[in-house]
Amino acid sequence: MKICICTTPIRPEPTRYPPFGSLAIIQALRNIGESAQFYNIDFHRYSRDEVREYFRANQFGILGISAVVSTAYAYTKFLAETIRAVSPHTKIIVGGSLAASAEILLRKAAIDFCIVGDGELIIQDLVRAIRDDADYRTKLGAMKGVCYLDDSGRFMFNGYGSRPSAEEIPWPDYGILEADGSFDYFVTEDVDSGFEGHKQTAKRGERVATVVMAKGCVARCTFCHRFEKGYRPRPSDQILGHIQYLRDHHNVRFVDVADENFGSDREQAWALASNLSEMGIIWTVAGVRTRTVTRESLAHWKANGCVSVIYGVESGSQKMLDVMEKNSTVKENENALLWASELGLQTIVQLVIGMPGETDETIEESIGFLKRVSPHLQSWKDRAPSEVISINYAQALPGTPLYEYARERGYIGKTVDEEEQYLIRISDIDAYAEDHFINHTGYPMLKVLMWRPLMLSKLDAFHLLSKNAQAHLSVWQIVRYYFMLVAVRVLRRLGWTRGGAGGNDAQAQGRYADYAASSGYFNIHSNLKFSPLLLNPVTERFFYPLLAVAIAFYKSKSLTNAVALLYGHIKWNLAGGRLPESLPSRSLRKVVTLVSRRNEGAEDRMLPLRSGR
Q1: CA atoms of 326 and 303, how far apart (whole Å)
Q2: CB within 10 Å: which end of the chain, N or C, has fewer?
Q3: CA distance 347 to 350
């Protein structure tokens, strides 16, 4: 059967994370005798005309779309509609996190099937049925993990399907990427990427590879979508065999461990660190939980080739950690960051703000947390913290308690049409932008939009003063700073300079900061610089109103919108600045009741899918 598996473009630039999901599906299909073509739209960035012509020319029997995030909805719909027009007999299957919106995809985007959860085994069942039986639709009722519309147009989901065990999870076939022409992009000689200080030690031809050592997560954060429960670390001998293969066949000497929970199996992580050192591998790791590390374990990782550890800290407020269901404490987060820095391990602080229950007080708690760790973090020693910290506004993604909270309170409509409009609105939006943000907080929108620059400004000012207690500025120096900042940015847009103003931009040109910004993973971008206003007693008095005006105009696309933001903030203050009494202070999972989009008494078959496994 003629089958194609394709990716969707999910960021302005191609992600550096290899398309492991697509490779796994292609390899799974080989086990039933099918050879699927790989059409990597995300990497090659084909034009829409090129995409249309490709599918017109090939006339596939089955197309599998790997939509790894819900922000891929608009492109997925375009893809399906294009294929319907040029290849009407193609069966279109969508897998990945976007399948959390299965009914919308089936009813509004011309999709035939959605695969829910790990798809390696489910895709085999579905393709076998389509391939071997002209009357295959009669078998769908007994098929797990597949969503579809029955002959009467009812949405059908018959429960979660089988998933491969840790031992059965296939290792990626890099030959697929070599044939695709993208291998050198994903297994790269760019040793700078995340391996600060090792450019000089890397020999010509040595490469960096991304390795996933486990599937799943030990937690279920309320802003994070996942179909599957549980954490499945791969067997150590398989992990080491895979890395040895990469070392022997592709000269990989640097490994980026892309697990979500590396270290949750403490004994395995300790042993793997020793094994990687014996193999001469330098490695980084992201997705480490702060509650699973000790100073001793981090010291062992460092002594055995680890150069960077990234945690999902998310907040410096215990209340917000509880709302997020992080199952960690502020003290555990603080210790993990301090231990890493004491040991010389690079790290990036990642925060999520604007969850329901976020207040001025919880933001100040996070600022206090950042101030406590500020003097110790290696990556902040020679540059402004605002340039190497990731602060994102919470995004309500389908399949999360945060999304259900928004639906329950009417921020996202309950009908298929209304939910589709939301998915279109958040499509192709950078996680660092606020366009996707739903304001659940009870504060006026302008105040909430000010939280991130407020945090960054206070942190930068504190950091500068902690390094130099005399680092106060005169009014003239502040005026000159902003004049230079504007001048440099204007010249940069004209292509006349690559420098920065006030030292901050220049300091941010370190390799680690460049990687974090360009990769898209951490969503670190240059921010408006307001911290100088806090370094003079006169301008400090006007800091908040100046920040409010600046943000209102900076974030608005018109004068009318800017004035509306300012008016909303002033009106709220004059009315007493009261917040709703019902704001959550515990896990959203315990607050939310799944709301059916159906009329009372009608069955909603999306409820089991939205509830998770």
Answers
A1: 29
A2: C
A3: 9
